[in-house]
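User: quick one, sequence for these C-alpha cells?
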C-alpha cells in the first residue's frame, strides 16, 4: 500500500516543499584530528575527521606530483535499526567512500603536498536519509578546519519527487517511499556541481527545478559552514578537552 507522504501541502514532518530540516554544524570537535566537524541535520548525526597531509603509507602508493586523497564513509552499526545493523564495510559504504573522495579531489589543492596522503574519515552515528549530503557538508568543514588548502567549501543537499511534488532535503521515509532522490553537491564560489546522483525518474523540467532548489539551499548550508569555522576562532576549545558534540 502506497504511503501518503504529503497531506494538505505539508510533508509528514510539517515542512513545505523547499524547507530544510533543522541543521547545526560545529567545527573542531576532535582534539586528535588535524581538522574535524560534527553535523546534526534533522535526525542525522555525522562526525568527520581529517588527518594530514602526512607521510603516504604504503610508500609505493605515494605520488611525486600530488597528495593522495583517501576517504572512509562508515555507518555505525547502531546508526539505524534497519539495513545498517551489521558491522564492517557494506556495498553502500564502499560506494559512498568513493564518490565523496571524488568530490574532494576536485577542490583540494593536492599538488601542494606531493608524496603525502590526506585522510577523510566520516562516521554516521545516526541516520535518517540524506547522510551522504550531511557527510560531504561535515567533511568540507573538517578539511577547512585542518587548514588544508581548498578551492571552496562544498555544500550538499538532496532534492527529489514525493507525492508528485519536487521537494528539498528528503527524510528517510521520503527517500524510501518517494518517486525519486537526487543528491547534489555544489561549490559555492562558482556554482560548479561536484556531485549529482539520481534514483528514480525525473523529467528535464523537474531536474532543472530541483537543481535550482538545491543550489539555493546549499547557499544557506554554506553560510552555516562558514559560521561554524568562524566560531572556532571566537571560542577556542582548551587542549585536552574530551569529544564535545554539544551544539
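Assistant:
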Amino acid at each position: 500500500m502506497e504511503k501518503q507522504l504529503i497531506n494538505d501541502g505539508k510533508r509528514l514532518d510539517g515542512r513545505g516543499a523547499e524547507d530544510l530540516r533543522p541543521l547545526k554544524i560545529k567545527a573542531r570537535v576532535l582534539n586528535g584530528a588535524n581538522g574535524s566537524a560534527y553535523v546534526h541535520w534533522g535526525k542525522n548525526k555525522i562526525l568527520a575527521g581529517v588527518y594530514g597531509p602526512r607521510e603516504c603509507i604504503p610508500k609505493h602508493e605515494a605520488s611525486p606530483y600530488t597528495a593522495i586523497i583517501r576517504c572512509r564513509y562508515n555507518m555505525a552499526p547502531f546508526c539505524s535499526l534497519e539495513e545498517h545493523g551489521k558491522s564492517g564495510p557494506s556495498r553502500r559504504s564502499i560506494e559512498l567512500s568513493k564518490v565523496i573522495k571524488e568530490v574532494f579531489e576536485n577542490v583540494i589543492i593536492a599538488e601542494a603536498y606531493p608524496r603525502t596522503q590526506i585522510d577523510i574519515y566520516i562516521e554516521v552515528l545516526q541516520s535518517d536519509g540524506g547522510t551522504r549530503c550531511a557527510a560531504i557538508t561535515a567533511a568540507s568543514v573538517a578539511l577547512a578546519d585542518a587548514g588544508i588548502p581548498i578551492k571552496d567549501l562544498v555544500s550538499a543537499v538532496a532534492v527529489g519527487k514525493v507525492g508528485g511534488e519536487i521537494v528539498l532535503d528528503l527524510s528517510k521515509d521520503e527517500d524510501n517511499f518517494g518517486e525519486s532522490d537526487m543528491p547534489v553537491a555544489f561549490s559555492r564560489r562558482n556554482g560548479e556541481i561536484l556531485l549529482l546522483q539520481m534514483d528514480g525518474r525525473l523529467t528535464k523540467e523537474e531536474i532543472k527545478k530541483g537543481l535550482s532548489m538545491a543550489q539555493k539551499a546549499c547557499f544557506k548550508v554554506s553560510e552555516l559552514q562558514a559560521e561554524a569555522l568562524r566560531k572556532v576562532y571566537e571560542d577556542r576549545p582548551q587542549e585536552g578537552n574530551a569529544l564535545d558534540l554539544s551544539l
